[in-house]
Design brief:
The strands form seven sheets. A five-stranded mixed beta sheet has the order 14-15-16-17-21, with no helix packed on it. The relative contact order is 0.12. The protein is mainly beta. Helix content is about 10%, strand content about 40%. It contains three helices and 29 strands.
């Protein structure tokens, strides 16, 4: 009788703690958990340790999960087109979403309640970045050069920043979380843009295909080495390293220290050679993310795989497979807003796919 009770308890315990959603045989090798979402392709994933939440954008909706159990807490609805980007505030109290419907929406993470819609944009919003102190967040997109600033504790207060850009159409964009600089990728420049064309002429170089422009308060940098469009950009936590992912199936790591070491630069600095060129993917690069300490880089591709790289050496560390479509988002389960503390440590890697599935990958056996 005692043995029967013990067996029942073990079965109950196994079911109770299992993070699976779906049969165990569907779990790819190396996964901790699987989440199946039927709203549409996964386009963004973000994590907050203070809120202990994982937010996943699928189609027009946002699914919020407990980051410990991976159980769904709430569903956020209201956008009228695909949600493209998500960002938690450093204190975990706010979640901001940006969409193809040309709006951003703010949400209270404790209650899951909608706070406000922000509607001053002229195109889709695909990048949001909070300032380090969380007092403001910045929003922008690939179809306009302006950056909007909002203040989560005073939503009637906003501002717009316009910076020099040779075009208003970009293939990828990213802002530093400090708000001190932005990086934009584009495929061609206007013949009227004398500064950029003269820069390439004087340096006796020409762009292979895509141009990446780094714009700071007093510094300007230009880099170009990809042979196809740059699809995705991501920055080292302090802006020291830039990762660019392209349709040429490569990822390139760039050292920006030479740019920020200069007090000012009247003419653009051409950074001609990347630190590393990461090869191995067989499809377009669609998603990138640095780990908390920026020692690791994760990449997702149209080839349905997720890869892990050593940033210092450029060495490929591991490949995860099991997705059935293009990887739309990769995110380390480590909180960048707590960088430098033990609480920030990356525990796992999360990836989302066009088939609506999210996998949580175990890094313990790969990264000591």
């Amino acid at each position: 009788m005692k043995i029967m009770k013990l067996m029942r308890f073990i079965v109950f315990l196994t079911v109770a703690v299992s993070p699976l959603k779906g049969p165990a045989q569907d779990m790819p090798k190396g996964t901790i958990a699987q989440i199946n979402i039927n709203d549409g392709p996964i386009s963004a994933i973000t994590y907050s340790r203070p809120a202990n939440q994982l937010a996943v954008a699928a189609g027009k909706n946002i699914h919020i999960y407990d980051a410990s159990t991976y159980k769904e807490l709430t569903l956020l609805t209201g956008h009228t087109d695909s949600v493209l980007t998500l960002a938690y505030s450093p204190n975990g109290k706010f979640l901001i979403s940006g969409s193809s419907d040309k709006t951003t929406r703010s949400w209270d993470t404790d209650s899951g309640k909608f706070i406000r819609t922000h509607k001053k944009y002229t195109g889709p919003i695909n990048i949001i970045a909070f300032s380090a102190n969380g007092n403001q967040f910045m929003c922008g997109g690939n179809e306009h050069a302006d950056i909007w600033y909002w203040y989560p504790t005073n939503l009637n207060r906003s501002g717009k920043s316009g910076s020099y850009m040779p075009t208003k159409i970009f293939t990828a964009s990213v802002f530093s979380y400090t708000g001190k600089f932005e990086v934009r990728a584009f495929d061609s420049i206007s013949l009227l843009d004398e500064m950029i064309t003269n820069h390439f002429a004087e340096s006796d170089s020409k762009p292979e295909h895509s141009i990446v422009l780094i714009m700071g308060n007093t510094n300007l940098g230009v880099l170009s080495a990809h042979t196809d469009s740059v699809n995705v950009l991501t920055l080292h936590e302090k802006g020291k390293i830039l990762a660019t992912g392209s349709g040429d199936k490569t990822i390139q790591l760039w050292d920006l220290a030479q740019l920020w070491d200069l007090a000012s630069a009247r003419e653009p600095i051409h950074i001609s050679k990347p630190l590393h060129i990461l090869t191995g993917h067989t499809g377009n690069i669609a998603a990138l993310d640095f780990s908390v300490g920026s020692k690791l880089l994760a990449s997702g591709s149209a080839d349905k795989s997720v890869r892990l790289w050593d940033v210092r050496t450029g060495q490929h560390l591991h490949t995860w497979t099991g997705h059935t479509g293009e990887i739309g988002a990769v995110t380390f389960l480590g909180d960048k807003t707590l960088s430098g503390t033990a609480f920030a440590k990356d525990k796992a890697l999360v990836s989302g796919c066009s088939d609506g599935k999210v996998f949580i990958w175990d890094m313990a056996k790969i990264v000591p």
